[in-house]
């Protein structure tokens, strides 16, 4: 992991420069006769390839930024996505491990010099690794199997450094999300990611979720055993990872995994007053008893009033063709900036395809559907592209947007068919009002 600020900055700087270079090259290929669809698909694939290659080597904030984007892999056309799909999956759940000596040093600092007495056994070989920590399998002193997540030494310094650099490049990253005011969005992302550095906060989040879903017949949240600022210990759980279901699951498994994921995300604000905000396949498993197991509660949105009713009203107005009312809600919530001149009908046309999963009793989430939406919104010659450039993502909607888009990305990777509308009708405030 490059620790020196100069080395990390150089790697991060290569991203927007590479994206800008490909944009220029794309215009050149159009002049030579290639279609907009071919050029856009090729540019998307090359941008994603470089994005995940660079972010995956850095860990810290950069890798977490990459994990947040990796769920959109389903929207990249198959012929371009195939060469690096494995790399995206690895980014979601893997990073080079720290040494045994480093691991023991962190455990001694966080749990005390006699930390080994707390365990009957401790496996020095990590069972999994992620952006700012790695997980070890162990047996607690009372005989329970536990998962021990240990934060990488220097992860806090690296994460904060990466986020500062990402904020410096806000203008260049504008190319990834045209129309959005990126600077405050990155500031909000930085604030939320900073919260993830203290594992005691993560432990509190997990305790809240575990209590809300205790004895639930569809959701399992492992209980917290112990926690410290850089170590959190939870019950050890097993199941079929969603990444494996995506690769080789039966259609029945895919559909059930998708249904459980949607049910968990839409019900959490009502049941826990919280929203699990790190939706990627590495955080979900399908257990043999039919439940979805959810892990990693570092990124959580606090929703003391539950899910915002404005989201339900937006969905309903789009479905019912009430473009003026949809536009009013979007403007009131900050999705349309006051200085923006944009027509309500254009916004309606832009958003209508995104609520198509709610128009049918059962909807098939597929890579093809995701790719179609990505191409529609990314075609620089189309009206939807121009409309998208005029829309903003308000910072207070960041995590809700991330969860909604990320969950849909997983559903498309799963190729799942499910009755999403019935789930939304049950749990989303404002939809039936």
Automatic annotation (TrEMBL):
Keywords, in A-Z order: ATP-binding, Kinase, Nucleotide-binding, Transferase
Highest taxon above the source species: Bacteria
Domain (Protein kinase) ranges: 121-433
InterPro entries: ABC1_dom (IPR004147), ADCK3_dom (IPR034646), Atypical_kinase_ADCK (IPR051409), Kinase-like_dom_sf (IPR011009), Prot_kinase_dom (IPR000719)
Pfam family, one: ABC1
Record-level Gene Ontology MF annotations: kinase activity
PANTHER family membership: COENZYME Q8, PTHR43851
Recorded family membership: Belongs to the protein kinase superfamily. ADCK protein kinase family.
Protein name (record): ABC1 kinase family protein
């Amino acid at each position: 992991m490059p620790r020196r600020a100069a080395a990390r900055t150089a790697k991060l700087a290569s991203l927007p420069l590479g994206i800008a270079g490909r944009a220029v090259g794309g215009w050149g290929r159009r002049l030579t006769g290639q279609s907009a669809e071919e050029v856009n698909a090729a540019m998307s694939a090359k941008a994603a390839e470089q994005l995940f290659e660079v972010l995956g080597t850095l860990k810290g904030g950069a890798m977490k930024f990459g994990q947040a984007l990796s769920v959109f892999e389903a929207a990249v056309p198959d012929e371009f996505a195939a060469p690096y799909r494995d790399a995206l999956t690895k980014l979601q759940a893997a990073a080079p491990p720290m040494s045994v000596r480093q691991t023991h040093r962190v455990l001694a600092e966080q749990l005390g010099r006699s930390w080994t007495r707390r365990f009957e056994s401790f496996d020095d070989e990590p069972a999994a690794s992620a952006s700012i920590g790695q997980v070890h399998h162990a047996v607690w002193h009372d005989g329970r199997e536990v998962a021990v997540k240990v934060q990488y030494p220097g992860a806090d310094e690296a994460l904060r450094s990466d986020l500062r650099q990402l904020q410096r490049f806000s203008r260049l990253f504008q190319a990834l999300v045209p129309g959005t005011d990126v600077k405050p969005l990155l500031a909000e992302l930085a604030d939320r990611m900073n919260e993830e550095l203290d594992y005691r906060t993560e432990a509190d989040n997990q305790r809240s979720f575990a209590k809300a879903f205790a004895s639930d017949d569809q959701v399992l949240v492992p209980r917290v055993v112990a926690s410290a600022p850089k170590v959190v210990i939870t019950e050890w759980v097993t199941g079929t990872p969603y990444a494996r279901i995506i690769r080789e699951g039966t259609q029945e498994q895919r559909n059930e995994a998708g249904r459980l994921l949607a049910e968990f995300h839409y019900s959490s604000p009502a049941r826990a007053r919280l929203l699990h905000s790190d939706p990627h396949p590495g955080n979900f498993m399908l257990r043999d008893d039919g439940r979805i197991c959810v892990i990693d509660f570092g990124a959580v949105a606090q929703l003391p009033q539950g899910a915002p009713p404005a989201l339900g009203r937006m969905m309903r107005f789009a479905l019912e063709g009430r473009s003026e009312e949809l536009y009013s809600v979007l403007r009131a919530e900050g999705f349309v900036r006051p200085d923006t001149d944009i027509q309500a009908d254009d916004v309606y046309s832009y958003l209508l395809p995104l609520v198509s999963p709610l128009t049918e009793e059962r909807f098939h989430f597929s890579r093809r559907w995701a790719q179609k939406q990505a191409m529609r919104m990314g075609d620089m010659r189309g009206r939807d592209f121009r409309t998208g450039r005029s829309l903003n993502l308000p910072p207070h909607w960041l995590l809700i947007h991330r969860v909604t888009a990320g969950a849909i990305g997983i559903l498309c990777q799963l190729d799942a068919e499910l009755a999403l509308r019935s789930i939304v009708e049950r749990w989303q405030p404002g939809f039936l009002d």
